[in-house]
Design a protein that fits this description.
This protein is of the alpha+beta class. It is built from 4 helices and 5 strands. The model has no long low-confidence stretch (mean pLDDT 86).
Length: 127
């Protein structure tokens, strides 16, 4: 993908998410890791690890964003691939299961104890 198309694709993906609890006019900052104390420390460390890998490879991302479409709050969204990354410790939420069943958005589910590699994210984009 050339640079112009990549920027257009990033904007398209970016416009689908907002700050949780705000109107659709409010957007989350790119390449910033936001944490929530309601999540465990392991969860936040895994999110930081994923964002570090994305940033190291020159990819753009947003964290803790709410989907404008169905209201789910997603841990990490890679703007270069459009893939949502959900970090789970035991089971998925009902809304996430429904989104996976629809299949219109690529969702990568990572368990806390699993390792993450950028190849997992890129492979998910091709499916």
């Amino acid at each position: 993908m050339n640079k112009k198309r990549l920027i257009q694709f990033r904007r398209k993906i970016y416009s689908k998410y907002k700050i949780p609890g705000m109107s659709n006019l409010h957007r989350v900052k790119q390449n910033c890791v936001f944490i929530h104390t309601s999540n465990g420390i392991k969860h936040e460390q895994k999110k930081l690890e994923i964002c570090y890998e994305l940033q190291k490879n020159g990819m753009k991302y947003i964290t803790e964003s709410q989907s404008c479409k169905d209201g789910r709050i997603i841990d990490v969204i890679c703007l270069d691939t459009g893939t949502e990354v959900e970090i789970v410790d035991s089971s998925l939420t009902k809304k996430t299961k429904e989104a996976i069943a629809k299949g219109d958005i690529p969702i990568l589910v990572i368990k806390l104890d699993d390792s993450f590699s950028l190849d997992d994210l890129l492979r998910r984009e091709l499916e």
